[in-house]
Amino acid sequence: MTETKPPTPTPGGTYEGWLFKWTNYIKGYQRRWFVLSNGLLSYYRTKAEMGHTCRGTINLATANIAVEDSCNFVISNGGAQTYHLKASTEVERQRWITALELAKAKAVHMQAESDDSGDEFPGVPPSSEPSGGGRSSEIQSALRTLSSKAEDLSTCNDLIVKHGSALQRSLFELEEMDAGADMGDKFRQVTERATLFRITSNAMINACQDFLSLAHSHSKRWQKALQTERDQRIRLEETLEQLAKQHNNLERAFRGATVLASSCSNPNLSNKGGSGNRDASDEEDDSEFFDAMEDPAEFITVPADPKYHRLRSGSNVGSLINDIGMDDQSFDEVSLASNSESTRSLELEPVRQRRTRIPDKPNYYLNLWSIMKNCIGKELSKIPMPVNFSEPISMLQRLSEDLEYYDLLDKGAKCQNSLEQMCYVAAFTVSSYSTTVHRTGKPFNPLLGETFELDRLRECGYRSLCEQVSHHPPAAAHHAFSEKGWLLRQEITLASKFRGKYLSITPLGAIECIFDKSNNRYSWKKVTTTIHNIIFGKLWIDQSGEIDMVNHKTGDHCHLKFAPYSHFSRDVQRKVTGVVTDKDGKAHYVLSGTWDEKMEFSRIMQSSKGENGTEGRQKTVYQTLKAKEIWRKNPLPEGAENMYYFSSLALTLNEPEEGVAPTDSRRRPDQRLMEDGQWDEANAEKQRLEEKQRMVRREREREAVIAASSPEEGTHQDNHQALWFEKINDPVSKETLHVYKGGYWEAKDHGTWDMCPDIF
After folding, report:
1. Less Cβ around it within 10 Å: N or C end of the chain?
2. Cβ count within 10 A of residue 372
3. Average pLDDT, the chain
């Protein structure tokens, strides 16, 4: 192979070619001949050395392959061996990476199969395992017997062929002889050979019968042994299940006894809550009402003491609440249940029929690697992406999708207790991620000054407005208010990086929710979104990180943890857990669920320190009431897989509406062309809009330079001003953000949009 030829596979699955290997700081990179075969990567100084001298070999089954830049990559098996390699071109490097990844996957698979086969037939002496070893020895003995019989059959077959051929020759010679010749010797010869053939045939028949008999007898024994193993496995599973139930019951009984003992030590609680002998109805009530949830990483929740749950029977409610010193409004579970059921009936009927479908997504193929290979390490907003990887809505519309579950804020506005209200705000925060689970398409980057309104005042009681207030870095401001008594505002700045195998998107802005009636103000920030399998495999999205939500009026906190997706975890995937605490750090509610399906919350009755966790930290044990569902994801519309997996709300976001501003995302031509399936025209229009935006920005920067150079002006500043938002320093949350300054809805009512720039 010459230096100009790329590495190519050879027969037998071998991949070979020239690469440059780092040797030391004196010699630097040296040209070496590399051979990839059977999961092993070996290298030689020259191709001629392949027959006698190997300079080094690394096993890919335990190796890690990492890409450094366009031509360099590293292969390491954990420290003992590390190869720093460089290809002559980026294409050649990618060919090697692909071949190495495939070879590694195959090597890992072969190693796993080898381990499985070793488990089935362990090569240990019988004395090491009395039962398993004896059974293995018995199987080996049976296999040797059957093998011996098979060899006998093969020998008999060879003899039959030999003697049959000799008998056939003798009969042929007998036919060719003349009638007058001596026939006696020939008849004797034929008779002898026929006798040998008959004996050999009988031996063959006997050997076949022995083989079949042995195979039949051993088959019955092996079937019986297999059935015995199955029965033992079923019995073991049943035993383990019983042990797990017994362990759980003992753990509950122990914790219940601990709580009862601590309660009896308090004279105010010793004679309250009924008699010490519990009746059958109480036991049935406990088994029906309590539900234990577990999060081994953070905390443990267990059923609360039985005396708390007599609230359901309605007896001694007031006395018990007074005895345990709890506020009536904060403990009333009836309000929680009614609050979640009554809001739907209060929602207003829609005044117009919204669309339920958009044109199906065309099946256009485009190589993602051809676009992304030159974008590693760059900011996502600066990558010129074709519409093939987008979805026909803008980032402003995607931001407005957070309001799909606005009813959670409606319910929160009716809460009398701030801690309960915090649970609804936390559920609203989690619900905003439910629309992303299948949405791997990239939203359109909004143009500077682009807006999007979502007017659902007559249908749902709220109005929403977004504006792109900055282009570099890209930042969008969002303001929404409701007649039900809440206000939501946020400013999102995305920090995104392409890392080769995955795309990481970190929102940097703050979110605030303010309730009019109580004047409770909550603030929090979003978690990191990661898009995996950018190059190979099916794209999938994960949300991970932690959210600290604060009520600035009362000092209440809610800590939410989004567990990262793990293929090796036995826990529920996409799990979210959280604890709501007051200003003194006392926990009042536990939240648990998944960000793609539902969330539940439980009232905490008692908390205590449990056993140490795996990391040596002491876990907190919360005794809770039965969990109640606070949010569940709406099902996707029929055929969503052909419509970019849009939700029912997302399908209406780009629906044309009269009276919106000229800068509204619905009027964006490239986005409209993509929705209609005209992707080539959409790409051309997208390039036109981006070039127009660059020209406007250069003109704005030129004017800023001229203004800065004049004596009247001071420093160099970007003179772009948002149209509907203004930047402030919030004295409460200590955040700098753009807030709505008013005027948009009044301009819409009067139809006066003269102040809007021409961005499309």
Report:
1. N
2. 18
3. 78
